[in-house]
């Protein structure tokens, strides 16, 4: 815990807001924290996969709104904007990428790759939003849109392949 405190001043894993914002600790990985943080979406997805579309979307909406607060408050406490350890936005973005996902691990993997592709490269308009929207909303919005882009790719692949 001391090493984390030295490396990430202002972050307290005993604070539930911080703990959620860093994806239950997965965002603390020294290498590729966003990729590791994205994996935190998988248990949520496995619990949500059989829900109705309306309930699934409702949960994503709540997680997005809560995420604006979680990410904004954690960034403020860390005295930085969108620290790589803050990965709640990746969790929600990945859940968006998995909306109405066909059954099978290969589709989960495809959604993961598509989401990370758009999250890392940030094509227009994702990059524009990332640069010009600040606070918790700014941290969340680029990943939400990356999730929408990945959703489009996965659904197109499903349409063409199934």
Terminal-residue CA separation: 48 Å
* Overall helicity: 55-70%
Mean pLDDT: 94
Q: Which word captures the global form?
A: globular
Oligomer: single chain
String of helices and strands: HHHHHHHHH
How many strand elements?
Answer: 0
| Class from helix and strand fractions | mainly alpha
State the low-pLDDT regions, or none.
none
Give the radius of gyration: 15 Å
Number of domains: 1
Largest sheet: none
> DSSP strand (E) fraction?
under 5%
Number of helices: 9
Structure, explained:
The chain has one domain. With 162 residues, the chain is mainly α. The model has no long low-confidence stretch (mean pLDDT 94). The longest helix has 27 residues, at 135-161. It has nine helices and no strands.
Q: In a few lines, what is going on in this structure?
A:
With 162 residues, the protein is mainly α.
Features:
mainly alpha; 162 residues; 9 helices; single chain
Helices and strands in order:
Elements: H1 2-7, H2 16-21, H3 33-39, H4 41-48, H5 53-77, H6 88-97, H7 105-121, H8 126-132, H9 135-161
């Amino acid at each position: 815990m001391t090493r984390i405190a030295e490396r990430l001043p202002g972050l307290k894993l005993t604070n539930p807001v911080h703990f959620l914002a860093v994806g239950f600790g997965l965002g603390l990985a020294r290498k590729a924290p966003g990729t590791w943080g994205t994996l935190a979406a998988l248990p949520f997805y496995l619990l949500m996969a059989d829900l109705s579309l309306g309930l699934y979307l409702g949960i994503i909406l709540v997680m997005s709104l809560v995420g604006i607060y979680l990410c904004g408050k954690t960034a403020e406490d860390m005295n930085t904007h969108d620290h790589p350890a803050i990965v709640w936005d990746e969790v929600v973005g990945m859940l968006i990428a998995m909306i109405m996902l066909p059954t099978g691990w290969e589709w989960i993997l495809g959604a993961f790759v598509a989401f990370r592709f758009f999250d890392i490269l940030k094509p227009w308009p994702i990059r524009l939003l990332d640069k010009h929207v600040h606070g918790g909303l700014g941290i969340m919005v680029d990943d939400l849109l990356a999730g929408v882009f990945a959703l489009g790719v996965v659904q197109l692949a499903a349409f063409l392949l199934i």
